[in-house]
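$ run holo --ligand "1-O-phosphono-alpha-D-glucopyranose" --emit tokens
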Amino acid sequence: MKRIIRKAILPAGGLGTRFLPATKASPKEMLPIVDKPMIQYAIEEAQACGIEEFIIITGKHKRAIEDHFDTAFKLEESLKKSGKKILLEEISRLNLLNFAYIRQREALGLGHALSCAGPFVKEEPFAVLLSDDIIEPGDHLLRDMINLYKELTSPILALEKVPLSEVHKYGVVKGEKLRDNVYRINGLVEKPSPSHAPSDMAIIGRYILTADIFPVLEDVEPGKGGEIQLTDALSGLLKKRPIYGYLFTGKRYDAGDKVGYLKATVDFALKNPQVSVQFKEYLLDIAGRLKHT
Ligand code: G1P
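-- output --
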């Protein structure tokens, strides 16, 4: 069957200020959750949906991302020679995917990052994944969004209900419920204060977009934080076509935040067969000690 969504764009040009000093010279996207860099979780999530072409928007100090997804001939040879089959499989699993890198010359915002990919996407719909939102691998958010796109053939935004005290961290939408978990969006605001939030439904880092977002992005003025915001471009696009929201009720980690990153690390470690038993013992030990403090 013909795949409708073949390409994914992963903006990775941001400065990663929340993780300084770790991100002074290394990409935030390469911070590991147990033994895999954050961005690899997003790539694998898209790969599981049949996506094979990845456009990564990079910037200064981001070369490690390109090296990570490149073949590592010498390393592969050495693992082969020493019979380390599992490790060899692990590092060569993504070799069949196609990666293209576009350099965002200045970190001018998510909308600007996306517009850098415009000339390379042409007319087809595509997915956008923000790699610091990590979705529990069994939860199939992107797959559900792609299926919804097939039915509605208009942009689909992943939404999550968040406490009002957190709306200032997200793009927030106003939507009319069409059926369980599916909304038609009537308005969007980037990072509103709780009193100006149109609802408690926040956009999380998964989008299925159509190529008509690119001309709109060209005309968007700098918005919140002086940046070119994707949310503002989506508000513009809403005047021309419907946009839908898919309410996600599974597990998401905001790994762009230190506490979210630590939570993801702990949960993924507990599921990792190599370390889970020992790590659980350690956590139980800590929990016991904490009870008495
Ligand atoms: C970006 C978007 C925002 C969205 C969020 C999801 O914000 O601008 O609309 O809700 O991603 O993670 P950022 O987290 O880059 O500040």
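-- notes --
The first strand starts at residue 7 and ends at 11.
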